[in-house]
Amino acid sequence: MASCDDIAPLGTDGGLFSDYTNIIASALVIYEHSITFSQEMRVIWQRRRTLVSAIFLINRYNILCSAVIVLLLGTHAIENATIQYIAKCP
Description:
Layout: H1 14-45, H2 51-88
Helix pairs in contact: 1-2
């Protein structure tokens, strides 16, 4: 049976660091989208549809969807690592 000494504490594992970094980046993308949405409504949605506006919207919402997916998958990995660490340590 593994002891607490055999398990790397949270934050020292490179994978967890990457997960936390992805979560921070995703949170920043979501925050940026939320504070610029009113400007997007005024500049993009209330004007004539063009190819440039379509490309802009595809790019903008592709990034937002990717950020949400990374955020959902990243939190699951961190929860698993936390549960494993707590379960093996008294």
